[in-house]
Amino acid sequence: MLLITGCATALVTPDLESTVGAAIQSTRVRLTAQARSALPAPTDLPTPIPSSTPLPTPTLGVGSRRLAASDGMTQVFVPEGSFLMGSPDGDPDVSPHERPQHTVWLDSYWIDQTEVTNAMYARCVAQGACSPPRSSAANTYPAYYGNPAFDAYPVVWMDWYQAQAYCEWAGRRLLTEAEWEKAARGTSGQYYPWGDEPVAAAMQAQFQDVSTSCSRAHYGGCEPYRDTALVGGRPAGASPYGALDMAGNVWEWVADWYGPDYYATSPEINPTGPELGTQRVLRGGSFAANFSRDLRSAHRYPMTPDQTIYAFGIRCAKSQD
């Protein structure tokens, strides 16, 4: 190899060539190390998270329940579909305003499992959204509303406006007549929440206790004290959807205006009652009802909305989101 410096030429010996090669290699190592140190530090990449299978959404159906956050009320689910509303011709216990029997389709909704209790209503009063009951006494209990012994009993002395105000405060609403009736009797048009058997066929005149019947409904034929009972205390009388006390205990306001001939022209889908009226409707009978015919799921009780007695209470609903 020749090393050229200026115009002079010199012979490069093997020893010199070896020394120069070693120096070049050393320089290369130093430059490589310096270049690497100048690079930015590597950033840690996130560990990939394996994708998870989403949990299935529960299917709602008969037997589904949920808890209302506002007042702690348990609600039961009523699926969409049709049912027989009203009463057939030829029944001596039937009033004309229950006819004609007709098929109605309803969207799905939730209904309170029991009537609203004194304790629940007191929360609304405490928050200033509800007015107190017209009386703190019940029919025979002089200290009823506000008495902890009756916290789980139905609130009474409710007029329609108070019932509506409570349901709105609770984030719910009053049921329509059609919704109330379907929740009480199911789809096949049975007479009572539990079926077609009367509450007590043998006791209508004497009001004598019949245990197999009185386990289903709290009403005058079974109740010698003539007053309210613990809500949900008659599970044998549950409706096909699990709603309790749909027959007896206290009357329950619904949203509709009353129309004696409304069933003849009622819409087939989600009827809401007449557009105007002077009376609203109560459903379900009460402890003050003397006869099982008053507890039939199709029975209608019109009343002016500002009126109330010791047997008028509340049950609410909410449309399925």
Listing every helix as H and every strand as E from the N terminus to the C terminus, the arrangement reads EEHEEEEEHHEHHEEEEE
Helix proportion of residues, in percent? 10-25%
Strand content: 15-25%
| Overall spatial form | globular
Question: What is the subunit arrangement here?
Answer: single chain
Largest sheet, order of strands side by side? 3-4-7-13-8
Per DSSP E runs of 2 or more residues, the count of β-strands stands at 13
Poorly predicted parts: 1-24, 201-212
Count of DSSP H/I helices: 5
CATH class: Alpha Beta
CATH superfamily: paralog of FGE (formylglycine-generating enzyme)
Distance between the termini: 91 Å
CATH topology: paralog of FGE (formylglycine-generating enzyme)
Q: Which whole number gives the mean pLDDT?
A: 84
Radius of gyration: 38 Å
Class by helix and strand content? alpha+beta
Largest sheet features: 5 strands, antiparallel
CATH hierarchy: architecture: Alpha-Beta Complex
**Count of discrete domains:** 1
Written description of the protein model:
It is built from five helices and 13 strands. With 321 residues, it is of the alpha+beta class. The chain has one domain (65-319): Alpha-Beta Complex (paralog of FGE (formylglycine-generating enzyme)). The strands form four sheets. It has a five-stranded antiparallel sheet with strand order 3-4-7-13-8. It is globular. The termini are far apart. The relative contact order is 0.17.
